[in-house]
């Protein structure tokens, strides 16, 4: 409707440019005979007056202006009572077609030429578009439909956008011609010059809009041409209803894929209102998403170590689903290879036609299967993050509990001996009136007992504090973990020279080529740990041997899942009996304190790095 309305507006503006004039007189045409809506006389307005029933129209009354004629037309014949009122431009009124000037002609040639130039340019642009459209029509046309393999390509998705741009182009052209006609009207009012400038500015903006729409239409036509040639980005016809011939292979494939994609049957008593469907079915991913969401709520409201069991169970089930999905991929791929028509010595044409449908159907299902696998992987990552968050929250809560227990223990150590002595002294083995001792004997017994208890507690605390601390580390995913006792690195002291006489440092930065490639950065930070202090807690790390620049063999131990390198071993004599722990894998960041002893291969240090203050600078090991 808007398209044909814009065409009517263009024709009306052209008519005004040739026949209309502010100084002309007008008459109303016989719309009874000109109208094609009915063979009988028609009425256009609320007064039920036809052209013949009107007291003025049959007498060919002459109106002094187009606005006056339109006012009569709308007041007596038309439903649009506002058109033709004072201040409205006649050439913008759709009812202007029922008027004709008397006498014809007499239009200003300058204004006519402006309209003619605009219309001629518009026609030229339309002819250019028409030539491209005809070319597209020839590209999409087919001589006959006898060949089953030759099918008309689907329509491009850009066609609706092209029609919208063409409609907008016609609407803008109608507005452009209307502005040109307004420019030809005599200026009235106080701001006559300002009105002319405003109209000229609007004409420029409209022309710019027309140029933009024209360029968009040309680009869309080129895109449609490319779609037809390479058959890409076309509207899918599989979504519509249609009939296709299929064979037994397709039926087997459909049964197989239907069994793979069936939703879970959820009993009504365990259905979860918002997530469940009315028919009691739920997708696999949806089921686990709901359960993981519940675990998130429990972890936020009441974090407990018990949640680790539930999270681990969910992760195991998700892993099983991923393995099952991989098996489904293998089954479908093997079946498609089995029914591939070119696997036979002589491909049958009918089998080739059937295979096109089977391949399209299988690809559609496998795309959905890929989406499910992607969702499951995302869910697996969420459970891993949830597990880590619960772990951190539980550790924080346990730290607060430890402080409370410590305070309670201190108070107990002080008051418990006093309470014991008081209770012991309170046992009346004889009549209190016959006792010779006073309060002094209580303090004589209580103070030494309390002091002895506190001393024993402090001695035990000192012994416990003096025990070697346990430091732990792990890979990025947490599958492999290790620990070692004592300080973050064994400091080589005189007492240790009997066991590690070959070590001269314990914390080192290494800038050698091997370490740079291992870390993926400028260097590695290494802690030296004796083998007897080192322990693998979980996981089965993989190892990789590589030759160092010095000729010794470096063995890297890394996680098979995430690839994190946790420690190294070296065949050189100075590294015999030690593990070279990568500092970045330590779990507790407080273990990263201390001072670097030595920087190895210092000349190869990156230019933007500075030497560590106090560290020995070595060119090699």
UniProtKB/TrEMBL annotation:
Supply one GO molecular-function term.
carbon-sulfur lyase activity
Bilayer-crossing residues are: 407-428, 440-464
Alphabetically list the UniProt keywords.
Lyase, Membrane, Metal-binding, Transmembrane, Transmembrane helix, Zinc
Membrane-protein topology: Multi-pass membrane protein
Matching entries from PROSITE patterns are given as:
CENP_V_GFA
Classification via InterPro entries? CENP-V/GFA (IPR006913), CorA_TM1_TM2 (IPR045863), MgTranspt_CorA/ZnTranspt_ZntB (IPR002523), Mss4-like_sf (IPR011057)
The answer to whether keyword Cytoplasm applies is no
Gene Ontology cellular component terms for the protein in this record: membrane
Say if the entry is tagged with keyword Metal-binding: yes
Localization per Swiss-Prot or TrEMBL: Membrane
Which protein family is it in?
Belongs to the Gfa family.
State the protein's name. Answer: CENP-V/GFA domain-containing protein
Organism, per UniProt? Fusarium duplospermum
């Amino acid at each position: 409707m808007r398209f044909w309305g814009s065409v009517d507006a263009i024709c009306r503006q052209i008519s005004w440019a040739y026949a209309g004039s502010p100084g002309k007189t007008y008459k109303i045409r016989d719309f009874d005979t000109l109208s094609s809506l009915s063979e009988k006389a028609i009425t256009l307005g609320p007064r039920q007056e036809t052209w013949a029933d009107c007291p003025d129209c049959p007498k060919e009354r002459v109106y002094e202006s187009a606005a006056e004629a339109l006012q009569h037309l709308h007041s007596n014949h038309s439903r649009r009572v506002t058109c033709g009122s004072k201040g409205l431009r006649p050439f913008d009124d759709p009812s202007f077609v029922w008027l004709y000037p008397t006498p014809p002609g007499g239009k200003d040639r300058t204004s006519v030429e402006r309209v003619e130039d605009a219309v001629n340019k518009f026609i030229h642009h339309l002819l250019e578009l028409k030539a491209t459209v005809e070319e597209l029509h020839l590209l999409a046309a087919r001589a006959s439909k006898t060949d089953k393999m030759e099918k008309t390509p689907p329509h491009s998705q850009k066609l609706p956008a092209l029609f919208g741009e063409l409609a907008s182009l016609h609407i803008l052209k109608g507005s452009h011609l209307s502005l040109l006609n307004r420019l030809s009207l005599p200026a009235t009012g106080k701001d006559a010059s300002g009105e002319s400038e405003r109209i000229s500015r609007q004409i420029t903006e409209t022309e710019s809009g027309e140029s933009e729409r024209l360029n968009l239409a040309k680009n869309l036509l080129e895109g449609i041409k490319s779609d037809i040639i390479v058959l890409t980005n076309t509207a899918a016809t599989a979504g519509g209803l249609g009939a296709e011939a299929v064979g037994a292979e397709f039926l087997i494939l459909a049964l197989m894929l239907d069994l793979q994609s069936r939703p879970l049957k959820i009993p009504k008593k365990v259905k979860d209102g918002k997530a469940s469907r009315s028919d009691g079915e739920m997708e696999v991913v949806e089921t686990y998403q709901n359960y993981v969401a519940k675990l998130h709520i429990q972890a936020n409201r009441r974090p407990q170590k018990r949640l680790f069991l539930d999270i681990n169970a969910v992760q195991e089930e998700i892993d099983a689903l991923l393995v099952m999905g991989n098996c489904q991929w293998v089954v479908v791929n093997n079946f498609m290879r089995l029914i591939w028509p070119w696997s036979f010595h002589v491909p049958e044409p009918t089998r080739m036609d059937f295979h096109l449908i089977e391949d399209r159907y299988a690809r559609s299902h496998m795309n959905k299967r890929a989406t499910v696998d992607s969702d499951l992987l995302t869910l697996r990552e969420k459970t891993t993050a949830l597990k880590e968050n619960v772990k951190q929250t539980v550790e924080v809560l346990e730290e607060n509990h430890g402080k409370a227990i410590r305070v309670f223990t201190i108070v107990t150590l002080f008051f418990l001996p006093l309470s014991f002595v008081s209770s012991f002294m309170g046992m009346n083995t004889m009549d209190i009136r016959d006792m010779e001792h006073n309060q002094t004997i209580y303090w004589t017994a209580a103070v030494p007992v309390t002091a002895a208890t506190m001393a024993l507690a402090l001695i035990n605390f000192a012994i416990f504090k003096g025990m070697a601390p346990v430091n732990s580390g792990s890979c990025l995913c947490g599958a492999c973990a290790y620990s070692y006792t004592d300080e973050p690195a064994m400091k080589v002291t005189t007492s240790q020279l009997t066991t590690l006489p070959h070590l001269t440092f314990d914390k080192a930065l290494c800038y050698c080529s091997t370490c740079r490639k291992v870390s993926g950065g400028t260097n590695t930070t290494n802690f030296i740990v004796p083998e007897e202090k080192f322990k693998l807690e979980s996981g089965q790390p993989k190892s990789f041997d590589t030759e160092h620049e010095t000729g010794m063999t470096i063995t890297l131990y890394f996680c098979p899942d995430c690839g994190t390198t946790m420690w190294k071993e070296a065949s050189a004599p100075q590294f015999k009996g030690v593990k070279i722990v990568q500092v970045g894998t330590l779990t507790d960041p407080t273990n990263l304190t201390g001072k670097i002893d030595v920087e190895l291969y210092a000349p190869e240090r990156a230019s933007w790095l500075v030497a560590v203050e106090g560290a020995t600078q070595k060119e090699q090991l």
